[in-house]
Amino acid sequence: MKPLAGLLKKIIIVAMAVSAMTAPAFAKKISVLYVDGQNNHNWAAMTPFMKAQMEKTGLFKVDVVTSPPRAPRPPRNLSPEQKDKAAQAAEEIRKKFQAKWDAFRPAFKKYDVVVSNYNGEDWPKPVQAAFEKYMKKGGRFIVVHAANNSFPNWLEYNKMIGLGGWGGRTEKHGPYVYYDDAGKVVRNTQPGRGGSHGPQHAFKIITRDTEHPVTKGMPKEWLHAQDELYDSLRGPAESMDILATAYSNKSKRHEPMMMTIKYGKGLIFHTPMGHENGKSLQCVGFIATMNRAAEWLATGKVTQALPKNFPTADQVSLAK
Predict the structure, then answer these.
(1) Is residue 22 over pLDDT 80?
(2) Is residue 51 in some structural domain?
(3) Under 8 Å CB-to-CB from 62, ≥6 apart: which residues?
(4) Distance CA 111, CA 140 (A)
């Protein structure tokens, strides 16, 4: 019996080893890459906060890649002699910053989800090409707030984000998309600039798609904390679904606040929420939206329950 018992023990040990080898496939954390480095908002404070909120769930492993800063501009109203010296200094600075940009090569394909908290200079052409390839082959992407201001002249990026603002965007970039009072999606092609907002304030989010994994279980209406309510966003808006809106007292229209966009084999979640003021980022509804969107993009489902202190229709809720 002893040889048989020894054989059974070995079989059990081998089975446990095989199980341990296959288990990580289910336990593996979702890899997320935040891209920041330039923004008209305080990205240096925003990214660490959003990163920490994702990591608190235990579902994500989050990395950050930061672009070079903008090169300083030479002073104005210089004498001819000063201009010569300034030109020499500017050339040295240009070379220094160019070297930094040459080294800026995010490894997009290593990550399940990429999050943009970037609004600045155009990425180098090789980076743009790498990101397009990543997305077309099935990449996953989250666009937050002013990241939809970026790259107005990069056609493929505009297709990815669906709608964008500022940067000279007009009706030439695509229609202004919103909900009318009857609950119908409008694609307004009339001339006009893309991107605007009024004073920061708390506003109601109206859940339009109650069955989508990201919004499932959310109240039909919930109060988002003080934020900039973007309006008049324009873009190709191709293969785009609107999950939630907010009514703008400035535009008098129901503006998209959560969108999903298909691009090639890739998938995008876009939210204009998330200004730098702190309250918008601390909003329990915003945090849950970001975390659920990242999980959905990576896995096709959402296992995270809504927080018990999720905002109500008339009560803001802030994370401590």
Answers:
(1) no
(2) yes
(3) 32, 33, 34, 51, 54, 55
(4) 9
Q: Each residue of 231-258: pLDDT tens digit?
A: 999 999 999 999 999 999 999 999 999 9
Q: What is this structure's pTM?
A: 0.88
Query: Domain range holding 223?
Result: 29-70+80-299
In a domain, 1, yes or no: no
The three-state secondary structure class of 231 is strand
Residues, the chain: 320
Which uninterrupted H or E stretch holds 224? strand 221-227
Rounded to an integer, what is the distance from CA 123 to the centroid of its chain?
16
Distance CA 80, CA 264 (A): 53
pLDDT tens, residue by residue, 83-129: 667 667 767 877 888 999 999 999 999 999 999 999 999 999 999 99
The closest of 294, 303, 306 to 113, measured between CA atoms, is 294
Total count of domains within the chain:
1
Task: Indicate whether 119 belongs to any domain.
Answer: yes
What is the mean pLDDT of the segment spanning 263-277?
96
Beta carbons within 8 Å of 268's beta carbon, 6+ residues apart: 135, 140, 141, 142, 143, 160, 161, 162, 259, 260, 261, 262
What are 272-306's pLDDT values in tens digits? 999 988 799 999 999 999 999 999 999 999 999 99
More confident residue, 78 or 104: 104
Task: Mark out the alpha helices in the chain (DSSP H runs).
Answer: 2-22, 24-27, 43-56, 80-103, 125-136, 155-161, 279-282, 284-299
Domain-located, residue 23: no
Report the amino acid identity of residue 216.
K
Residue 284: CATH number of its domain: 3.40.50.880
319, 285 in Cβ contact below 8 A? no
Q: Can you tell me which residue has the tokens 């235990």?
A: 58
Give which of 228, 219, 300, 216 is closest to 257, Cα–Cα.
228
